[in-house]
Amino acid sequence: MTSATPTGDPDYDVVVVGSGAGGLSTAIAAAHHGASVLVLEKADVCGGATAWSGGWMWAPRNMFARADGVDEPRGLPRTYLEHRLGDNFDAPKVDALLDGAPEMVEFFETKTALQFVPGAGIADIHGDTPAPVPGTAPSGLGR
Ligand SMILES: Cc1cc2nc3c(=O)[nH]c(=O)nc-3n(C[C@H](O)[C@H](O)[C@H](O)COP(=O)(O)OP(=O)(O)OC[C@H]3O[C@@H](n4cnc5c(N)ncnc54)[C@H](O)[C@@H]3O)c2cc1C
Question: Residues 6 or more apart from 130 whose CB is under 8 A from it?
């Protein structure tokens, strides 16, 4: 990665530290809404652990899942997370995920160059948890 020292106007609306999925998602969303953004990365490559990841993400109630017939009421993934997380269940964070995940997927799919591969066909590796999604949507992959 090219090392760059910001030039010109040193003032930014948003300064993001780290260029993983969390940081770059923040940067893209902020820029989309008109903010000037600076991303700082300490490594000599961009992408963090995200660059190594398998790239699958669990985003309950997203537009692709619904299109594939997985139209869960909000309470189902919440129940699932209550059982999976146990004492680590943090209601405000979980509710933020359940509210924001569908909006996030739709934002990146419709407003940016990032395009997703639907994943409703993927089996749940914790399928014995209450309120799992079986992952049987026929058109889930390879669309
Ligand atoms: C092999 C592998 C496969 C995976 N597959 C999946 C998957 O399929 N699905 C899934 O959901 N998750 C997967 N994960 C986990 C997932 O990749 C991570 O949870 C996710 O990428 C973390 O993103 P992040 O933005 O929080 O952090 P990171 O991607 O780690 O980004 C943090 C960035 O911040 C930088 N940074 C840290 N401190 C500073 C500082 N002081 N100044 C400047 N920069 C700094 C780091 O160098 C790094 O670039 C996988 C992980 C691995 C390793």
Answer: 79, 80, 83
